[in-house]
Amino acid sequence: MLAEAHGTDPHGSDSSMRTSSIDNNNNPDSSILISKMEGVVIPYTSEVPCDDYGQRMWWAFLASSMVTFFGGLFIILLWRTLKYLWTVCCHCNIKNKEAQKVNNPANNPTADKTTKGPDEKEEAAASEVGWMTSVKDWAGVMISAQTLTGRVLVVLVFALSIGALGIYFIDSSDPIESCQNFYKDFTLQIDMAFNVFFLLYFGLRFIAANDKLWFWLEVNSVVDFFTVPPVFVSVYLNRSWLGLRFLRALRLIQFSEILQFLNILKTSNSIKLVNLCSIFISTWLTAAGFIHLVENSGDPWENFENSQSLSYWECVYLLMVTMSTVGYGDVYAKTTLGRLFMVFFILGGLAMFASYVPEIIELIGNRKKYGGSYSAVNGRKHIVVCGHITLESVSNFLKDFLHKDRDDVNVEIVFLHNISPNLELEALFKRHFTQVEFYQGSVLNPHDLARVKIESADACLILANKYCADPDAEDASNIMRVISIKNYHPKIRIITQMLQYHNKAHLLNIPSWNWKEGDDAICLAELKAGFIAQSCLAQGLSTMLANLFSMRSFIEIEEDTWQKYYLEGVANEMYTEYLSSAFVGLSFPTVCELCYVKLKLLLIAIEFKSEQRESSILINPGNHVKLQEGTLGFFIASDAKEVKRAFFYCKACHDDITDPKRIKKCGCKRLEDEHPSTLSPKKKQRNGGMRNSPNCSPKMMSRHDPLLIPGNEQIENMDMNVKRYDSTGMFHWCPSKEIEKVILTRSEASMTVLSGHVVVCIFGDVTSALVGLRNLVMPLRASNFHYHELKPIVFVGSLDYLRREWETLHNFPKVSILPGTPLSRADLRAVNINLCDMCVILSANQNNIEDASLQDKECILASLNIKSMQFDDSIGVLQANSQGFTPPGMDRSSPDSSPVHGFVRQASVTTGSNIPIITELVNDSNVQFLDQDDDDDPDTELYLTQPFACGTAFAVSVLDSLMSATYFNDNILTLIRTLVTGGATPELEGLLAEENALRGGYSTPQTLANRDRCRVAQLALYDGPFADLGDGGCYGDLFCKALKTYNMLCFGIYRLRDAHLGTPSQCTKRYVITNPPYEFELVPTDLIFCLMQFDHNAGQSRTSLSHSSHSSHSSSKKSSSVHSVPPSNRQNRSSKSREAREKQNATRMNRMGQEKKWFTDEPENAYPRNIQIKPMSTHMANQVNQYKSTSSLIPPIREVEDEC
């Protein structure tokens, strides 16, 4: 405590005396140290007070603050009063002068001089005000946070205030009042420097203030009044009084403003949180300082005798337990001033504690758990994944992206989503914490894009919600995400999922969207329809392609079941690798055979560079293509390490090696020299020229000069007056037709003898989202089919819905519509569904149902309805084109190779379970309802179920893996689009974006050359040139023979499910085997997936056998007749069955004896015509059937299949 009157304070510090006489009289102690300083003798001892009377001088410190405050306040009020009186007086003088001018209008020199004086005074005053204004503006700029100088000054003042508060905390451990020498006390000197700076800053603020009175009463001004003057008094009196220096804690209230000036706080929640915390803490510390002052000093009226020794931090503790209403009682106020203060503080502090603390906790609790920023790791790339982030989408993405079959994936995945993950998703992130991070935010916010370091990301992947009710709205959201990301960083590579094909056109409107640099849009509707369309051409192909572009782990099964062979094929994926220079100069079939036989790799396509250095992907090109240096190959293999063999292969070192696992990098200098040129970086794979035309230019693709095409076909195709194909030459085209001209009634459909066609059952109404039927029709109308090979397409569904889709379908030939419902058996019988090559079941209403298990109810009901139907055995036979084909170049007229001679036809379908069906599903788990005889568990993954393995079910979820595949190699997406879309190119997409319809074009050598491209088909092994291999032969021998003889590239088998059992009565279900090994044993009932070349000779001559069918099918051999079974295959037929069939044919022909106006869309007859359909006798009908059954134009048919 401070020195008392008798000078016996034990806490007294070093003191000084201004006179030596006082030392001699009052303190004769010999321990006194006396030193002279500027002629003044100052004794220092712990027992001697600061003056001769030992009185406290706290009132001097307090008086300096009060005088400054009230004195300044008095001067301001006085100035305002005088200014007000002066204004009033001037106003009265002006009124008097105006009255004098009115009373004395005469002008005299005296009056002029009199009036001139005030004007000059006003001008002087104006100039004086201008000077004051400039000074005021300068001071305002100095303290304003709008300028760099102002921000620095504001931050410096705040920092010095916190420093002064820190000095107070240090001095609070000393007595309230003590003797100190300014020249010896280091903390006092620092505090003095701080307060001098505060004084200067106070002057600037005072000059800049518009209202001096309000400025004088501000909190910061009051803090300066009670902290700055006492420091100067302390220097003068050589003593220190702790006093009201705790008021510096009030400066903490401005902490949030300082952080905003520094651009640290940007969000409202963070500003509010800092505000609440700073107000709470500053009030707490300030109140503790007051209690510390009065409790350690005591009450003045009690002569300071009721004081108690409390440290500052004990007072802080006291205030906290008081605010929280706990009040332990271990520390309490003893002085009257302290208790009086506590009474009022409890009222305010309790209210503040009860309101501020819960709000602070709520803000902290609501603070984003994933609100940090990504820290990039040197040497490690990262990608940003945004869009539809759910447990299902993320798990599917990670399962494929981080698959073990890929090379070491040194990529970190950063997920950005505006909703915090649920517990399941959070657990998934934690399981992959070494490669996955999640941040909460939106890609539409540039601040969040900066947090995830989008500018340094390798790519940004945007996932779409495949199950949303409004696909167009979902696409619009993803397009906005692309715009935001590209606006922030135009060079970032973006891979986005799109639901609707027509929305892809909007991406072309983004200036920085550049597919040449790797930007890609994966349209799920386009690819889904393309997969299903390819299954119409080769059943089961959708399953095979889906498995190839998905990462699946190998599952080994010891039992000899169909699952064993299926899963061995599932383990294959699509990879790319640069080919060794040992292959340079060899033709593609030669390299393909070498890779398959020697390296155990299946090469299906290459990247070919033209003379103009433009790159294109060639799928199974012919002998005319020779491999170049650094050619990129597309392989089917089980993992990426196997594909490295194609790069390491050296003829000198590996020619005699039989085990492909031993083919590794050799020490040849040639290989070392080629390594830098062939192993190019990833950017090389993002070649714009290759993506520009996946079907490449005529110089690259055409095996035949367009002008050297056989004469009949050349003359037919070069007819400049007929438009047969679209402007790109990639698709068959016809003039647009009105929908009414292609509508069939049920009776008309019954009279139209449909067979070998595609039935599309579509569920939808006026309000349903469009599924994009054009994407389903385009692959079926690809120009690499001859016109007579096109399968007629019949849509069965709501006419209101099909009207909405018709705008995109009216330029395709051989398309008909039967208004009705796929659930009506009468409608299905009318379109001869038992004679179709494929029945496709689609629904546009799937995403409008919240219950996931009911989303596929319409498709499942339609599928079960068809499978339960029964048909008359005498109606007809299954068509050959869906069962197999004759290899190009085979002499069909030869008796040995005649389809009739060598291939056995299957009897007509008598039950719906034998009808080829592919059903689209939304929910993968609903696949269990399609086959009632399978034993699939509801939790089984889709690719392991029997319907998917058989190619009868397809779900859009299998396309999720394309995001990962496209990121690692964007050529993969180009390849798959080339395979499944029939030849869609970016140029075609641009045309569709402009007109939303195909534009017809005249046939030119360039457009006709685009027809020369491969297509997928199925080869039957029952008889023909490969019959010797079909019964126990090796798949590898078949592969080599087909490749050498017909340039056909085999890549899979479509096998009967029970073929391995060898039972005479087998189930008709088939399953897919992808890329079997060389020694794989074949059975006669196998169908081989192959890539066949375009056959120029197949379309030279074609005779329409009958015009009895609908005109859109009149040119098709499959739709214009009912084929009869050859006599050699009808030995088991009874004469009664034969008579019934003849009777029915005769009845049908008689019923059709009427005149009807048909619309034909044949290229040579693209106009309405009247056809007189005459009744036919039974004998004539039999002759027609006999002609059809023996015609060399009928392709081979697959083996006989009995129902399960």
UniProtKB/TrEMBL annotation:
Signal peptide as annotated in the record: none
The UniProt regions of compositional bias labelled Basic and acidic residues, in chain numbering, are 1-12, 1136-1145
GO cellular component terms listed in the entry, alphabetical order = monoatomic ion channel complex; postsynaptic membrane
Chief place of localization:
membrane
Topology of the protein relative to the lipid bilayer: Multi-pass membrane protein
InterPro entries attached to this UniProt entry: Ion_trans_dom (IPR005821), K_chnl_BK_asu (IPR003929), K_chnl_Slo-like (IPR047871), NAD(P)-bd_dom_sf (IPR036291), RCK_N (IPR003148), Slowpoke-like_C (IPR048735)
List the Pfam families: BK_channel_a, Ion_trans, Slo-like_RCK, Slowpoke_C
Recorded GO molecular functions are: calcium ion binding; large conductance calcium-activated potassium channel activity
Q: What reaction(s) does this enzyme catalyze?
A: K(+)(in) = K(+)(out)
Instruction: Cite the SUPFAM superfamilies for this sequence.
Output: NAD(P)-binding Rossmann-fold domains, Voltage-gated potassium channels
- Sorted UniProt keywords: Calcium, Cell membrane, Ion channel, Ion transport, Magnesium, Membrane, Metal-binding, Potassium, Potassium channel, Potassium transport, Transmembrane, Transmembrane helix, Transport, Voltage-gated channel
Please give the residue ranges the record annotates as the region Disordered. 1-28, 101-122, 672-697, 1101-1166
The membrane spanning regions, by residue number, are 57-79, 152-170, 190-208, 273-294, 310-328, 340-358
Q: What domain of life does the native source organism fall in?
A: Eukaryota
Positions with biased composition (Low complexity): 1106-1128
Localization:
Cell membrane
RCK N-terminal domain location, by residue?
380-522, 755-899
Composition-biased stretches, type Polar residues, lie in: 101-112
**UniProt-listed PANTHER family:** CALCIUM-ACTIVATED POTASSIUM CHANNEL ALPHA CHAIN (PTHR10027), CALCIUM-ACTIVATED POTASSIUM CHANNEL SUBUNIT ALPHA-1-RELATED (PTHR10027:SF33)
In the record, the note on similarity to other proteins reads: Belongs to the potassium channel family. Calcium-activated (TC 1.A.1.3) subfamily. KCa1.1/KCNMA1 sub-subfamily.
Name assigned to this protein: Calcium-activated potassium channel subunit alpha-1
The protein's organism comes out as: Poecilia formosa
